User: Fold this.
Amino acid sequence: MSTNPRRDFMRGALAAAGIGAAASPSAQAQAGNAAAPLLPAYARAQHYRSLKQSSYDRTGGNRDSWDIPAGGTKEVFLAEGAGAISHIWFTIAARSDHHLKELVLRAYWDGNAKPSVETPIGDFFGLNLDDYRIYESRYLACSPGKSLNCYFAMPYRRGARLTVTNEGKQGVGSFYSNIDYMAVPSLPEDALYFHAQYRQAAPSTPVTGEAAKLNPLGGSNYVFVETRGRGHLMGVTLGVLENADGWWGEGDDMIFVDDETKPLINGTGSEDYFLGSWDFGGRDGAQPFGHQMYGAPLISNAERTGGRYCCYRWHGDNPVTFERYLKHTIEHGHANDRGDNFFSVAYWYQSAPYTDFPVLPALDTRIPQVRTA
Assistant:
C-alpha cells in the first residue's frame, strides 16, 4: 500500500493527462471520455428563467399586435436586471410599401441614452433593398408570411430597452412581436454587448483616373462599421442596387484591426467575401442562394442597370477580434471604380456598449432608387 496517497494521486492525474510518466491506454481512454461532453447542453440543468415579452392582447382578446402611428415610437421590450435576449420575431402589416425602411429598430443596453443598435428594421433582418425575400441563415431568417427572425444573443447586465420608430407618413396597423429572453442573477465577466449599425452610400462615389487602378490602403472603400474598444466582428448584410451595367463586384474586403493606417485582412473580391464565386454565376447564369454562414438570397437583373443583390456573410466560425479599433470595409468595384448604391448593416460584440454612431441617413435617401448620371 502506498505511504503517500497525495503523491500517488498527483502522479496518476499527471499520467492520465499524458504528462510525466506515460499514460496507460486505459488512462488515456478515461481522459478522452472526460473531455468529450456526454450530453448536449439542452439535456443538462439550466440556470436561468425563461421569459417572453410580446404584443399579445392584454384584455384576453385576439388583437395581438400594436399600432405604430406615423412619427410614433413603440417600446417593444423593457427589462431590468441581468439577462439576455435569445430570439426576436416580428411580422408587420402596413399600408406603406416602404415600411421595411421607414421603421427603425433601436436597442439600448444598461440604461444608456444612445442606442447600440440602430438600423431600419428590414436592413437589420438582411432585407437591405426594401423587399421581402425568404431565406434562412444561422442568425437571421425571413419566412413565408413575412416573418422576421433573429437569433443573435443580446446580453445586458442592468437592463435592456428596444424600440421601433415609424418615420413614415402612414401608420402601421399591425406590428406583431415576440421577444424571448432569459433572466439570470448575473452574467459572466467576459460577456459582451451586441451591436448593429446601418450605413449606406446611395450612390457610392467612383474613383477615376490612375487612382482607380491601385488601392492598397483602402482609402475610398465603403465602410461597414468603424468602432473603438475591444470586441469581435460577427458579420454583415449588404444590399446593392446597380446604377450601371456590368459587375458591381471586384471589390476586395479590407478589415483594419487596431491600426487605422492599413488593413490587416485583405480579401480577393466581393463575391469571394460573401463566399460565392465567379460573379455569383454572371450576367446570364446568376442564381440566388442561402446557406447558414453566407448567401445571396436576392439576385435579380444581374449585371444590368437596376440589378439587385442582397448578400450576407457571418464570421461565427472565426469572429474578427480587435483590442482597440475596428474598421470593416469593402471596395465598390475594383479600386472603387463603380458608383452603385450600397445599403448595409454590420453586427458585432463589444466589451462596453458603443453608441458613437454616425447620424442615421434621412428616410428619402434610404429608399433604394437607381441613380444614373
